[in-house]
Amino acid sequence: MQVDHRKGPRRRGEVLEEAIMQAALAELAEVGYMNVSMERIAARARTSKAALYRRWPDRAHLIVDSYVRFVVDDVDIPDTGSLRTDLMVLLRQLANVITSPVVMMLFGLLVDAGDNGELRAVIRERVATLKPVLISDILERARARGELRKPLTRRQSTLPIDLLRNEVVQILLRDGPAGEIPDSTIEEIVDEIFLPLVRA
């Protein structure tokens, strides 16, 4: 006998969307991106496929939004009173997030994006634009404390996160099991590259 997972209290709006996105990431972690289906996500979220398609056109858009909502949005922007310490704490958090098993399984999403210009645009909009948001408050506070001696361009402002992303790419391209980004690498990004640039 097939169980109807949709039976239960009726959910709407943000409550339903959150349940769907949690189900999407759980499904991703269990079966990998290539085996994710809207039908399986709907069953796990105890809703209908129609409820998913009213909000997202396909699985890739749903996974991108779920990643941003439950992975990146959980990053706490530090406020320690020091630019260096703020950057170290932020990059450590981001390193832990973007080397997590969920993110490693998003390779399939990038494969889909290769032939889908609309999806590439979604990834750029939803993920790439997070960089200045994550670091802008840290830089504004540092500027108010006098730790920044000159205005920074957008590219200069996001340099620490860009360099961290490059480290992740190297991990993903390596043979064998993925490893973590060591604290020494984060210290190099902050102490040897970014701080000398902004304090010159």
Structural notes for this entry:
- With 200 residues, the protein is mainly α.
- The chain has two domains: 13-64, Arc Repressor Mutant, subunit A (Orthogonal Bundle); 75-198, Tetracycline Repressor, domain 2 (Orthogonal Bundle).
- The protein is built from twelve helices and no strands.
- The protein has helices at 13-31, 38-45, 49-53, 59-72, 83-98, 101-104, 107-114, 117-128, 130-144, 154-157, 159-173, 183-198.
- Helix 4 packs parallel to helix 8, helix 5 (83-98) runs antiparallel to helix 9 and helix 5 (83-98) packs parallel to helix 11 (159-173).
- It is elongated, with a radius of gyration of 19 Å.
- Mean pLDDT is 84; it is low at 1-6.
What profile does the largest beta sheet have? Answer: none
Q: Segments where pLDDT lies below 50 for 5+ residues?
A: 1-6
* CATH class identity of the largest domain: Mainly Alpha
Overall body shape: elongated
The CATH architecture designation of the largest domain is Orthogonal Bundle
The tally of strands reads 0
How much of the sequence lies in strands comes to under 5%
Helix content: 55-70%
- From the 3D structure, determine the CATH topology of the largest domain: Tetracycline Repressor, domain 2
Distance between the termini: 70 Å
